[in-house]
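=== RUN LOG ===
request id: a7f3
mode: sequence -> structure
chains: 1
length: 511
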Amino acid sequence: MAAEILINVRPQETRVAYVDAGILNDLKIERRTSPTLVGSIFKGKVSRVLPGMQAAFVDIGLEKAAFLYVGDIVTSKDISIADTIEDDDTEEITADANSSAAETSTENVKYPPIQELIKEGQLLLVQVAKDPIGTKGARITTQLSLAGRFIVYIPEVKHIGVSRRIEKEDERERLRSIVGKINPSGGVIVRTAGEGATEENLKTDIEYLDRVSKDILKMSEKKKNVGLIHSELDVELQALRDLLSENVVSVYVDDEEVYKKVTKFISQLMPKYKQNLFHYTDSKPLFDLYDIDLEISRSMDRKIWLKSGGYIVIDEAEALVVIDVNTGRFVGKKDLEDTILKTNMEAVKEIAHQLRIRNCGGIIIIDFIDMEKDTHREKILNHLQEELQKDRSRTQVISMSSLGLVEMTRKRTRPSLIKTLCKPCPYCDGKGYTKKRSTVANEIFRELERDLDSMKNQKGGVVVHCHLDVVDWIYEVEGNTLDQLESKLGKTVAFKVEPKYHTEQYEIFAN
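=== RESULT ===
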C-alpha cells in the first residue's frame, strides 16, 4: 500500500510519522533538550569496575555514568557479534549491532573477568546502545557499528550477513556474493533496504562507512578527554534512511531549512526518491492531515477502547509493560467463547499497534481473556506473531499460559512515548493514586492515640494541621470518633486548614 512520511518541525521538537494507508504505523519524537544518543560515539573513561556484576561505569561526559557489560567489551575476534545480528533488521539496527552479543550469547560464551579487560581510569572508545531510561544511565559498548542506507558496517569484525527479512535464498546469496567480491576490511550486514541493491549501491555504502570509521579513530586519538566523537544522524534523517522505500509515495516537510537539509541528504544517498519530496506550506497543520495528534493523545491514555466495545488497559513500569484485555461493552452474538475469541483477536491488532506507537520495550505481559479451547489460544498466538511482523523492532513471543497470559519482549533502545512526553504526577509522585480522606483521617486518629499519655500531661489543647478535604471528612463523617478521642485525651482537638498541604500531609502540635 501507498505510504507517506510526514516531518513536523518546531524550534524545540521534531516529529516524524510514518503513515500507511492513512494509519499511523510508526512515530519518532525528538526534543532538542533531550536528543537520542543511540548510535553516537564517545571517548569515555572507566570510573568504576564492578567485578560482582561483571560490568563497569564509564564517564562519557553525561550527567549519569554510562553502563558497560563485560559482553560488550570482549576483544577476541573469534566471538563475532555479527553471528548474533545478521538476521535482525530493526529500526535501531545500530543499537542492535552494539548490544546483541551481550544479550544473546552470554549463555554460550565464557567471558574473561571484567577486571582483566579494563581498569579504572582507562580511556575507551564506546558507542551508545541504549538511551538513559529512568534512573539508569546510557548502555554502551566498545563494539562499534555504523548504519548506512543498505548495510551496517562493523569495523572490527570480519563477517558477511544478510537481514532475515530478505527471504528469497537466491537474493541472499547474490548479496553475499557481491559483498564478498568487494572484500571490505570490516564486517558487513546487508539491511532489508539492501534487497535488490546493485554492486555499486553496496560498494558506495561500504566505502563511505569505512572512511567514517577511520575518521572516528583519528578523532579519538586526538581527543585527550571524555566527550562526544561522532553524532548519529538527526531524527528526520535517521527516519528517511530507515523508512524510505518503494512503498513511500511522498515525504512532506513543513520547515524550509529542514526541507533543504533533507533534499541534500536524499540527493546524495537516495537520489531516485528526490521526486517524492515535498515542502508542505499549507495553513492546516501537517499532522492534522491524518489526525495524528489525536492518535498520539489516544496512545497516552491508560485505557484504549476497541471498535467492538471491548478495551485494553496498558500500564507501563520502568522495565515492564502489563496489558489487560477486557470485553467491556461487547456482548457478542453467539456464545461466550465466541465473544471472548473476537475480543482477543481485535485486541491483538490494537496491542501490536500500540506497542509500535508507544515504543514500549522490555518485558511485556499480556493478560488475554481466558479461553477454554486450545485451538483458540493457538489462533491468538499466531495472530499476534503475524501482527508483530510489521514491527521494525525485534520481538519475541513466549507461549500462552493456561491462565491466558502471554509473555513477550520487545527491543528497547529509546524512552517510550509516555517517558518522552509525560512526567510522573507531582501530586501522587507517580504512584497513580493517593490515599482516601478516610485513610488519612484514621492515620491522624491513630497517631493521637499513640501519643495519648504524653498529650494528657501537656497543657492546652491539640491542633492538627492538614488539608481541607481531610478536615471536612472528619467533621462530616468521623464526628463520633473525634468525640471519643477528645474524651480519652481530656482536651479538645482543633484542626487548622493548610491550603498548600498535600492531601496526605498532616502535622500535630500541642497548643
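=== NOTES ===
The chain has four domains: 3-33+237-293, 41-231, 300-421, 437-510.
The first strand starts at residue 3 and ends at 10.
=== END ===
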